[in-house]
């Protein structure tokens, strides 16, 4: 077995995070097939309004008579879609800018990093709220707002790693052979900073899901009747504390998903980055 894979398998946190994430992915992909009431996740039924957890509805129903378990399962698809698209968009912006600033430097590098510092000076949620507030509420708005506020994290990480690789002897040797600089960047620098990108992306998935839920809770993300966890918690507020199950189970789903990505991200960092490994 590969040594890195062996370390990963022996890490209980990594195994737990992977198992939780696998369950969430299964819910996202196959949710409509095994959700108990997939149609009731969208269609209202006033006769079933605010039913407590029972054998018929394991997690109860909301104020519109929709099955909470079905909506929570289907909400995994929305959460993963928003987070994956956001992380990919952030990487497309932050990684090239970080490589350019870290390897080429100069005035352009200074401009890029000062812009990055400007974004990082403001908490991401506050900045995302500002971007989302000027656009109509939707899942697309949440994705755009999160992408525009998360790319600096990739840029900062890639900048630091690119600077480290740039000072390596093999880069000096390649430059002495008059190898094209862009070839050096994409064929030699980028592969060496890829582990840091993977770690940031894994941890960023959890952060993005949490921030997207906050946007949905504040009415700046997904709109009804989309089964989005933050929106489900917001819709349950008028019925609290009586209808506690409406907000409790979507909140647990958010907690478990973020925890899974954090556990996995920390374990991946220890496996692929020797400087972060715990002493055994």
From TrEMBL:
Keyword annotations: Cell membrane, Membrane, Transmembrane, Transmembrane helix, Transport
Keyword Glycosyltransferase attributed: no
Transmembrane segments: 12-35, 78-106, 118-135, 141-159, 197-223, 243-265
Domain annotation ABC transmembrane type-1: ranges: 76-265
CDD domains hit by this protein: TM_PBP2
Coiled-coil residue spans: none
Primary localisation category: membrane
UniProt cross-references to PROSITE patterns, sorted A to Z: ABC_TM1
The UniProt record lists the keyword Transport: yes
Compartments where found: Cell membrane
Membrane topology: Multi-pass membrane protein
Family: Belongs to the binding-protein-dependent transport system permease family.
PANTHER family: D,D-DIPEPTIDE TRANSPORT SYSTEM PERMEASE PROTEIN DDPC-RELATED, OLIGOPEPTIDE TRANSPORT SYSTEM PERMEASE PROTEIN APPC
Protein name as it appears in the record: Peptide/nickel transport system permease protein
Species of origin: Caballeronia udeis
């Amino acid at each position: 077995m590969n040594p890195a894979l062996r370390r990963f398998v022996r890490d209980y946190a990594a195994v737990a995070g992977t198992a939780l994430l696998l369950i969430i992915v299964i819910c996202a992909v196959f949710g409509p097939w095994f959700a108990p009431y997939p149609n009731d996740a969208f269609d209202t039924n006033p006769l079933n309004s605010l039913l407590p957890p029972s054998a018929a509805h394991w997690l109860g129903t909301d104020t519109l008579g929709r099955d909470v378990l079905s909506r929570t399962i289907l909400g995994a698809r929305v959460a993963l879609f928003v987070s994956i698209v956001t992380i990919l968009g952030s990487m497309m912006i932050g990684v090239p800018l970080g490589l350019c600033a870290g390897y080429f430097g100069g005035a352009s590098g200074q401009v890029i990093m000062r812009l990055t510092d400007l974004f990082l000076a403001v908490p991401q949620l506050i900045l995302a709220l500002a971007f989302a507030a000027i656009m109509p509420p939707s899942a697309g708005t949440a994705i755009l707002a999160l992408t525009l506020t998360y790319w600096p994290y990739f840029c900062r990480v890639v900048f630091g790693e690119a600077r480290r690789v740039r000072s390596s002897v093999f880069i000096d040797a390649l430059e002495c052979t008059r190898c094209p600089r862009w070839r050096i960047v994409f064929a030699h620098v980028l592969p060496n900073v890829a582990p840091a990108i993977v770690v940031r992306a894994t941890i960023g998935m959890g952060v993005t899901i949490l921030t997207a839920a906050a946007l949905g809770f504040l009415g700046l993300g997904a709109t009804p009747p989309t089964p989005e966890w933050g929106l489900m918690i917001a819709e349950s507020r008028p019925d609290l504390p009586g209808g506690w199950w409406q907000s409790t189970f979507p909140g647990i789903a958010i907690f478990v998903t973020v925890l899974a990505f954090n556990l996995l991200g920390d374990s991946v960092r220890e496996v692929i980055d020797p400087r972060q490994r715990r002493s055994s």
